[in-house]
């Protein structure tokens, strides 16, 4: 019977897919102890033996450049997270060191980012312990996903969804800083609309000095992006001046603020204030905490963090893998290893009170532009941050808040990928829908739920596409018999079973010369049991003639032949 | 540029899909007033003018047979729903009449079913008003889905999920009746496990008379299914005796119970007790109710019903459309019209205190086997139930509960489609997973959530299949140049973008003779912007040569050509 051969062929496929379990485990165990496996998991073993001293100059320069951007950004992102500024610095050094050992992409710079800071903000404002615990738990989750090779899950986050998410995050973070930029009291709000309402309702409270400094710094930072193209300086010098623009902005801000502030601490600018100097303690992440005098257990903390842990881990993986792919141009990316690396970065970070970390686009691009040769550049960045924590923290008392806001806003302006939005719109109009929905959902419901809405909507596209597979029906005369040849062109899933049946029945009812219907499966690899059963239900219990039975091969899954009488 | 032509071609497709809106609305408006549209919506107008008197004999016999089964089943399902038995009868007549006007499938019998009764049970036990309101709301939802032509949504419920759902429902309902069958006090539980625990912990409380009657009735009902094949009676008589077995069981039960019960109402059997005689009042469905002296508003009632409304409506649609397809063998089913019909049945039912209705498999098969010619058979069934309510309700005082349990259990035993489970297992091993998961989830979480879990799991299959499209890469020498021809065979969605890129890059890295990569899209219809952008990212910013630019047609969406240098 044709049906039987369909079943038995699918059976063979099954055995092919699931070979003997013992063999599988043996192979896996043996693989564990091969040298390649070890160097895959510890990439430092691959490049360190080949390290050439002259590379170190390049790594040093790149590490330093990244460090000079990392310090002001970290301080700013500590503030975005709703914490004291030193937490930003605590978050920035451990990953730089850890990634040297485990990272596979020389350019990648792991640390705090604006999006991570915003995502943890609602929990961190309760107590820094939440941010640190989130870092630990997200790290564990990323490590686990990496070990289990589940990185492919991020493929369900499409470019329109990522673009919408990033645009929403940038708009939210940038908007929240608008108030600080103009010296208006910021209610630590993270709502885009609230921030603008606050801004426009407080226009009379704009502080001239703060606004002037903020706007000028912002203009300076935006112009400095293009400083690398100036003609009057040697190209390489112009490039490094452009790359170090954040450091310049901070230094200029500190100098102006220091000069204009009197010895009692009164001056025209709102200042960052005291940044606690010294190393953070190396200790276990907090598994319990106290908020407003109330003792919270581990379980209470997990309940508070809730779904954020998954969202933060996913976004962190997404950023890391996407950037690794972008900067490893053409080389195959070991996504699982990247997940393991950033997972360990976050776990280790949680021992020094760090916020959740991920790859920073700004600093990774900077690292690449500065010509880094290996991940060792991270050692220089990390050391610079440690030195800052040990000796320079007090200097940062004088960083005007408006300067930090300008740094954040200038980063956010360039985080939105305007070209990409245009490309999505030009590429396929429908794809602008997940972009818009993700953007609105992220702004409205918060980033962690917004991205879920976007992913969910985009999955609906996949599901609906599966309802209407491409089926061609051709009517041919073979030896005077009318044959309707149904050519299946996509693999069929249960959701398309009824569509296939309806198409065939409509065709047969319309073309009275059809005497035989052949369903040909040469071009498909797989159908599921619903499609099989629904297709078979086309045949009534009458005896049916079979003209062909070439159904032994893998590609020939179905080849029913039924006389027309059985269809009506 | 190749990219541009890809974009512009997709643009054309778009315009093709969305023609002028005015034209569309004009066409739709004109369509509304065509005769075909009216007869499509009121199918009675199609068959009534052609009605031949001799059909009425067939319709009468079939309607009577169905009615004889409908009465005891309705009483039993009223009890399954946790209500007084007369509610079952209230539920059974209105749909029989309404479906005559709106139904398209002559065999379909709409009424209360065991699954509907079980699904509404948890709400109905609080107050019958919940069941009636649910009937109204589900009816409105079904009507709406039918009008909006959204019936295709049920295609996301695969055969394994339906089979698991039905098996779980049958097991739960059957198990709950085991206690009553043996005369053990039933705690009105609807939990499969609880019912069996109750049964085994109460073995000592088994009532001999009830158990004897129950088991004998069950054996009688099962044997009578096969009575139609006996040789000593004319075939047609044997068939009708077999079909009327439920009525026989009830009549025999009533006679025995009546004879053994003394005038004070004491007897060996637990009896159904008083069934309120007379018609239900014709009134608006209850939009508020009182439970335990507490006044509940419409909003409170909606909150109580919650997600059940959607589940019940979906299951009701699923049953109706599936059965219409099964019994209209080969004719195209107007699923939307069926949804509208069963929606109106439920809305009208709620005016006479009915439970949610759907197509009953048992009675539909009975109707078909009895040779019904048109939906007019429903008039006879409906009238019989009305007569029963008016004159016979008091007789049913004597129906032994064990008899009703036997009727329910025998229906449940044959509700599970054992052949289908075997076919799923033989068809595709993986598909047994959604069956098992749906079964367990339905038993464990209840039917309305269980089916959701099953649908969700099965959707994951569709999603994961989209991650790995079928891509063939062939290496050819053309004029001495190594060309890797990438043949796409499925439509590509964003989830497969990375897979495609990785496949191409691995192939190029492994085969050093590749100089040009061609991505050919002749066999695909559609890609989305993520696939487009990720594929384009294979090209670095270096100038790339293009050898071919035949990308104007619909099928030729991509035909990138890049020299190998741009890939490494």
Q: Can you tag this structure with a few keywords?
A:
homodimer; 568 residues; mainly alpha; Transcription Regulator spoIIAA; 2 domains; four-stranded mixed β-sheet; two-stranded antiparallel sheet; 24 helices; 6% strand; elongated; disordered C terminus
Give a written overview of the molecule.
Two copies of one chain form a homodimer. Chain A has a four-stranded mixed β-sheet, with helices on one face. In chain A, strands 1-4 form a two-stranded antiparallel sheet. A two-stranded antiparallel ribbon of chain A has the order 2-3. In chain A, strand 6 (481-488), helix 23 and strand 7 form a beta-alpha-beta unit. In chain A, helix 7 (114-124) packs across helix 8 (128-147), helix 8 runs antiparallel to helix 16 and helix 21 runs antiparallel to helix 22. The model of chain A is unreliable at 1-18, 540-559 and 561-568 (pLDDT under 50). With 568 residues, the first copy, chain A, is mainly alpha-helical. The radius of gyration of chain A is 30 Å and the shape is elongated. Chain A has helices at 2-17, 21-32, 35-41, 44-47, 53-80, 86-102, 114-124, 128-147, 159-181, 192-201, 208-225, 235-243, 245-260, 298-305, 308-327, 335-349, 361-369, 377-392, 401-413, 418-427, 432-445, 447-467, 497-510, 529-536, and strands spanning 110-111, 289-291, 294-296, 358-359, 471-478, 481-488, 516-520, 561-563. Chain A has 24 helices and eight strands. Chain A is 60% helix and 6% strand. The interface between A and B is large, with 63 and 63 residues.
């Amino acid at each position: 019977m044709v049906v039987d051969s369909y079943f038995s062929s699918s059976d063979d496929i099954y055995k092919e897919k699931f070979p003997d379990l013992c063999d599988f485990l043996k192979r896996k165990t043996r693989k564990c102890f091969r040298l390649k496996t070890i160097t895959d998991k510890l990439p430092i073993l691959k490049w360190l033996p080949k390290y050439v001293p002259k590379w170190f100059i390049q790594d040093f320069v790149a590490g330093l450049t990244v460090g000079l951007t990392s310090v002001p950004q970290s301080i700013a992102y500590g503030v975005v997270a709703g914490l004291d500024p030193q937490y930003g610095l605590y978050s920035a050094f451990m990953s730089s060191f850890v990634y040297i050992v485990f990272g596979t992409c020389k350019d990648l710079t792991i640390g705090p980012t604006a999006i991570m800071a915003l995502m943890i903000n609602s929990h961190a404002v309760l107590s820094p312990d939440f941010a640190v615990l989130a870092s630990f738990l997200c790290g564990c989750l990323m490590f686990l996903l990496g070990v289990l090779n589940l990185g492919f899950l991020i493929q369900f986050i499409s470019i329109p969804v990522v673009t919408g998410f990033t645009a929403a995050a940038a708009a939210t973070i940038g908007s929240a800083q608008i108030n600080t930029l103009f010296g208006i009291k910021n209610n630590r709000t993270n709502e885009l609309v609230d921030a603008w309402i606050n801004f426009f309702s407080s226009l009379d409270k704009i502080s001239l000095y703060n606004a002037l400094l903020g706007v000028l710094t912002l203009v300076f930072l935006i112009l400095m992006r293009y400083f690398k193209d100036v003609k009057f300086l040697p190209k390489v010098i112009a490039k490094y001046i452009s790359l170090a623009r954040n450091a310049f902005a901070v230094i200029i801000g500190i100098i102006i603020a220091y000069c204009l502030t009197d010895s009692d601490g009164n001056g025209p600018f709102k200042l960052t204030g005291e940044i606690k100097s010294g190393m953070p303690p190396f200790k276990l992440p907090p598994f319990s905490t106290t908020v407003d005098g109330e003792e919270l257990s581990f379980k209470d903390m997990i309940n508070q963090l809730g779904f954020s842990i998954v969202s933060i881990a996913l976004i962190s993986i997404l950023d890391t893998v996407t950037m690794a792919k972008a900067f490893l141009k053409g080389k195959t990316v070991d996504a699982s290893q990247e997940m393991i690396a950033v997972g360990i970065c976050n776990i280790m970070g949680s021992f020094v009170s760090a916020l959740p970390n991920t790859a920073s686009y700004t600093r990774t691009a900077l690292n690449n532009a500065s010509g880094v040769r290996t991940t060792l550049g991270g050692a220089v960045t990390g050391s610079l941050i440690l030195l800052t924590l040990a000796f320079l923290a007090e200097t940062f008392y004088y960083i005007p808040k408006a300067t930090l806001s300008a740094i954040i806003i200038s980063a956010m302006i360039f985080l939105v990928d305007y070209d990409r939005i245009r490309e999505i719109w030009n590429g396929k109009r429908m794809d602008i829908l997940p972009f818009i929905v993700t953007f609105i959902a992220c702004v409205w419901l918060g980033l962690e739920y917004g991205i879920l809405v976007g992913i969910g909507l985009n999955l609906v596209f996949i599901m609906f596409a599966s309802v209407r597979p491409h089926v061609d029906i051709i009517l041919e005369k073979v030896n005077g018999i009318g044959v309707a040849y149904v050519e299946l062109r996509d693999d069929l899933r249960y959701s398309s079973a009824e569509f296939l049946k309806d198409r065939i029945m409509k065709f047969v009812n319309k073309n009275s010369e059809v005497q035989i219907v052949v369903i040909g499966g040469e071009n498909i690899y797989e159908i599921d049991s619903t499609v099989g059963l629904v297709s078979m239900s086309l045949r009534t219990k009458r005896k049916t003639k079979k003209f062909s039975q070439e159904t032994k091969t893998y590609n020939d899954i179905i080849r029913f032949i039924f006389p027309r009488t059985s269809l009506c």
